[in-house]
Amino acid sequence: MSDILKLENFPHITTRETKSLRANPDNAKDHGDKQIRKIAASIERFGFLSPIVIDENGRIAAGHGRWEAAKLLGLKTIPVHPGPIIGRR
Q: Options 3.30.479.10, 3.40.50.720, 3.90.1530.10, 3.40.50.2000; which CATH number does 13-82 get?
């Protein structure tokens, strides 16, 4: 792996246990099984190139498909990036 892609080069990106994250019930996208398998294959081949964006409570703001693919692959931890607080305006 290139040094530029190492997690320590991105201090705002951390890892969290996959099972600790929660889906956002207002998520507009619906990923079918076929698409989840394609995302899983991409993660296996290239790794996580884009972290899952979560709020302070571990609710997913962006990356539901990647989260489902990570669960399919049995990944215990995944990269996350703190993002917007969901449900507060």
A: 3.90.1530.10
